[in-house]
TrEMBL record:
This is Large ribosomal subunit protein uL22. The lineage of its organism: Bacteria, Pseudomonadati, Bacteroidota, Bacteroidia, Bacteroidales. It comes from Coprobacter secundus subsp. similis. Part of the 50S ribosomal subunit. PANTHER family: CHLOROPLAST 50S RIBOSOMAL PROTEIN L22-RELATED, LARGE RIBOSOMAL SUBUNIT PROTEIN UL22M. It comes from the Bacteria.
Length: 136
């Protein structure tokens, strides 16, 4: 690795130390379905978002609820204290496409239709409300 890339990588690593996030890779759900659930909770206070996800009928909401609990635990681990109601909120949530499994389905007249089984990566960032208020 060159010196310039190493400096850039070190800066990125230092920035990640002050951020609180959780990642979920290779979720076997299409990104479009996961984005519907992610849009429901984007920018919401974390305990309110947990309630929304718990009572949502979508299959992806259970995975996102577990991811949000992990992000809260990561925040508690780095700050060495428990999260209080109204303190944390979801600052950013990204749903990116992952690898696609390509399968063939038999079709009439000897043909085959391609089936794309999509998967996704989800990244969820949490932050404190007071930190956000000071910047504005």
């Amino acid at each position: 690795m060159g010196a310039r890339k190493r400096i850039s990588a070190d800066k990125r690593k230092e920035a990640l130390k002050t951020m609180y996030f959780a990642k979920l890779n290779n979720v076997p759900t299409s990104p479009r379905k996961m984005r519907l659930v992610a849009d429901m909770v984007r920018g919401m206070e974390v305990f309110k978002a947990l309630g929304v996800l718990k009572f949502s009928s979508k299959e992806a909401s259970a995975r996102l609820e577990k991811l949000l609990r992990s992000a809260i635990a990561n925040w508690e681990q780095k700050n060495e204290r428990k999260a209080e109601s109204g303190e944390l909120y979801i600052s950013a949530i990204y749903v990116d496409a992952a690898a696609m499994l390509k399968r063939l389905r038999p079709a009439p007249q000897g043909r085959g239709y391609r089936i794309r089984k999509r998967s996704n990566h989800v990244t969820l960032f949490v932050d404190t409300m007071s930190k956000n208020d000071n910047q504005n």
